[in-house]
Here is the input.
Amino acid sequence: MKIVMATGTFDLIHPGHGLYLQEAKKLGGKNAKLVVVLARDSTVRSRKRIPVISEDQRKEVVEMLKPVNEAYLGSETDMFAIVKQIKPDIIAIGPDQKFDLDDLKKELEKRDIKSEVIRVPQYKKSPLDSSCKIIKKIKNTKFSDKCFKDC
Here is the structure.
């Protein structure tokens, strides 16, 4: 059984996340095990924005997704620590993740981590295909008082 590792923030889950995880798992073949590593809140804040959903709740939701076998929170100091611990056969990089695959492969070699790195080419295009787009839509929507009555 091959172990495939997928990584990401997974804040405000949308169909793009589902497609990425489905395609990542397929990379390992029929009986692959999909392990997902979620970015810590501190990492999200430093690289993207303030997360909407806490790291523990994001992990809990990702664990519920059909393709996922296990989920972990990543390291706040060394993103390769969890890779060394899990020893995946394949690391699946999402189509919108800003990793240079050659640089990533070199770093893995330097650390004696023998994982294949593959970018998932499929991307689910839709009006709300990113957490940022979802946040912007919420911010720009004129809600009536009725919408917030029970909030």
Remarks:
- The domain at 3-148 is CATH 3.40.50.620 (Rossmann fold).
- The chain has seven helices and five strands.
- Strands lie at 3-8, 33-38, 70-73, 90-93, 116-119.
- The mean pLDDT is 89.
